[in-house]
Design goal:
Blueprint: H1 2-12, H2 20-39, H3 42-54, H4 58-67, H5 73-86, H6 90-97, H7 100-110, H8 124-138, H9 142-150, H10 156-165, H11 170-174
Length: 175
């Protein structure tokens, strides 16, 4: 079932011939299904996350959704949440961190580009899940931390410092 849903997500990211609103709903349903699997706790949750991680197409599909200019924050939030939950696993963390598209989109949603106020574009829940995903990706991974710090167009230290001064994102910025 997991392979079929992920395979369908791959098929549906090419939306040239289908109504965008309908296609968006289908993709959102698929993402929310995979998200529910990823957030399952205990041994069953660990087994489901392992199964998701082992699927060779999932990260590519998530990256395609995040990269697609026609998709919306409605699709990005569950995709980022799946990424955050998969990043609980050290092996998955390394694989996700190597996907520059994913790191770049997470950075954009959480911090925004230099001088850009992301609150104009993204709501708080999206920024929170992007920050959570970045926090999990950076845990115990010098390579991911380095990739985050070197992401072009971002002043990560300044952005985190500014968030620490506020209340809304203080915990995530500290993480």
């Amino acid at each position: 079932l997991i392979s079929k849903v992920i395979g369908l997500m791959s098929y549906t990211t090419d939306r040239q011939s289908v109504d965008d609103a309908q296609q968006s709903e289908v993709i959102c349903s698929q993402l929310n299904f995979v998200r529910r699997l990823a957030i399952t706790e205990d041994k069953i949750g660990a087994a489901l996350r392992q199964e998701l991680q082992n699927n060779p197409f999932l990260l590519n599909n998530l990256a395609s959704i995040l990269e697609d200019t026609r998709s919306s924050p409605q699709l990005w939030k569950p995709a980022m949440d799946i990424i955050a939950k998969l990043a609980w696993d050290e092996e998955a963390r390394q694989e996700i961190g190597s996907a520059q598209v994913i790191t770049g989109k997470l950075m954009h949603a959480f911090l925004g580009r230099r001088g850009e106020d992301t609150s104009m574009y993204y709501d708080q829940p999206l920024r929170m899940v992007a920050g959570e995903a970045l926090a999990y990706l950076s845990i115990g991974s010098a390579a991911n931390c380095s990739a985050i710090l070197k992401e072009p167009g971002y002043d990560v230290i300044k952005g985190l410092k500014d968030m620490l001064c506020g209340i809304e994102y203080r915990y995530l910025a500290a993480s």
